[in-house]
Specification:
Low-confidence stretches: none
Order of helices and strands: HHHH
Helix content: over 70%
Shape: elongated
Distance between the termini: 42 Å
Structural class: mainly alpha
Number of helices: 4
Number of strands: 0
Amino acid sequence: MLFVKRLETGIDHSWTLRNFYKELQTKTANPVYRESILQAVGDKRNHYELLQYVYYMLTGKYYSIENKKTDFTSFREGVLAALKSELKEAELYRDLLMDCPGRPIYQPIFLIMNQVTANALRFNSIYKEIK
């Protein structure tokens, strides 16, 4: 089922991005940037848990994640990668919403899609300031 495959992608991305953002926030001394990035870390943890919940509702089991690492050489490069990742995820969750099999599944996906948009705005703001 394509919907379940997309959920797996979302689960993997959420966990990978959470770890990436945790490292990224250590690369700046700016407290505003750190706070914004830490908000994204918390959101990614929440996304991971919500997506696992949806996955369990559909399959009766939890998804085993693929632990990947995102490398970056500078804070600026990392912020740009984060921005691109959030925009890509927004498309993923839009597609999931379009194929959503029911209201109990729609609600967590809708919440995640809105948080992803907010994170994209955060990273866009940081990127514009450090250009």
